[in-house]
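Supplementary notes for students who missed Thursday's class. We covered one full example, reproduced here. Read the sequence, then the structure, then the short commentary at the end.
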Amino acid sequence: MKVLIASNAETAHIFDDHTPEIKRQEPIIGGVLNPNVGKFFRTFQGDSLTREQVKSFNQSETDLCVIGMLDWEDDTGHYQTRLEQCLVKESSRRFLSHAGLNNNVEIMMH
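Structure (token representation):
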């Protein structure tokens, strides 16, 4: 899982650009994903945003993005579900949540 600031143009390929970094992270082993409950929470810690990053986000120059991968398995096989979402600040002081092309994509690993 990774939280990062990216320019509006970078968000189009942010998942592919940062996949190697996510794969190098120490995995969190364990946890239960109960089917059909609709909610699952886990807290992750990352680098703090710099003043410059916060300023660029507040000026609508960059987006705040979260990307990640969840590997899981059940009786049917081993899967990976991907997360790619960005928070976009509009100039009107509204925020939009943007789901990227890789968001909620499920891949059978083998």
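Commentary. The longest strand covers residues 62-74. The mean pLDDT is 85. If anything here is unclear, bring it to office hours.
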